[in-house]
Amino acid sequence: MSRPVAFADTPWRDLASRLPSAPVVLTAFILGTALTWALVPDLLSGYSATVGLPGNQLKPPSLQHWLGTDELGRDLLARLIHGARYSLSGAVLAVGVGLVAGSAIGLVAGAAGGRTDTWLMRVVDVLLAVPTLLLSLAIIMILGFGHVQAALAVGVTAIASFARLMRSEVLTIWRSAYVEAAFGSGATFPKVLWRHVLPNALTSVLALAALQFGSAILQISTLGFLGYGAPPPTPEWGLLIAEGRSYMMIAWWLTLFPGLAVILVVMAANHLGHTLERTKA
């Protein structure tokens, strides 16, 4: 009598091990949807994000308006779709500022050492000592209110995290055998930094960038909620939540759905960052 073939003994186990897990698929779906909203909002919505329809004020979710309408008769789904452009572009700008400036500071500090390292890290320590929200508000007071200004302010708050991580990676790589071999073969200091140190240090920094992307969306939404981000009638996600506060008792959907959009995208970006970290490890 033949022994039953277990699942572990079949090729299906190998196939199942190669398929992406459910969280990865869900993360890709959420981020892909948000990115599609940001790139082609007009193709995905048949309603205006800024002009309301007379007689459609505060309509609950229905087949005509899937997520309901706001106090001016504007379709909430259309405003969410168009708002993805502002929230995601602001996060990209913020992460870009933190990535470039912070990586440059950490690279120079770790490679130069001595007093240069000491002074640059003291600046980073000052940035870390100030609460993130307070620092971003102070920068906005200098730059002025607006979507771009809020993104730049959030980017400045991210510089310290990128700088510390880049410096630690550079210090580790700087003592490696291939860097010593590069110097022994006659390579100059800038060439070693550009060809050997920076490419190997960027792996961890890019994983942090994915984590900072979710954090940047949350911070930009917070600034928009407080009134320091994009002005009305811009459909920025944080501003949508703020505008729906006055109607929570009679129009719960105005705060629920924008809040869910922020939560889902932030969690998906954080999961992507943790996945990249585990892949590196």
TrEMBL record:
Keywords linked to the UniProt accession: Cell membrane, Membrane, Peptide transport, Protein transport, Transmembrane, Transmembrane helix, Transport
Transmembrane annotation, as ranges: 21-40, 86-111, 123-142, 205-230, 250-272
Subcellular compartments: Cell membrane
Pfam families: BPD_transp_1 (PF00528)
ABC transmembrane type-1 domain ranges (all copies): 84-273
Top-level taxon of origin: Bacteria
Listed CDD domains: TM_PBP2
Membrane topology: Multi-pass membrane protein
InterPro entries xrefs: BP-dependent_transpt_permease, MetI-like, MetI-like_sf
Family: Belongs to the binding-protein-dependent transport system permease family.
Protein name: ABC transporter permease subunit
The organism of origin for this protein: Pannonibacter tanglangensis
Upper classification of the organism: Bacteria, Pseudomonadati, Pseudomonadota, Alphaproteobacteria, Hyphomicrobiales
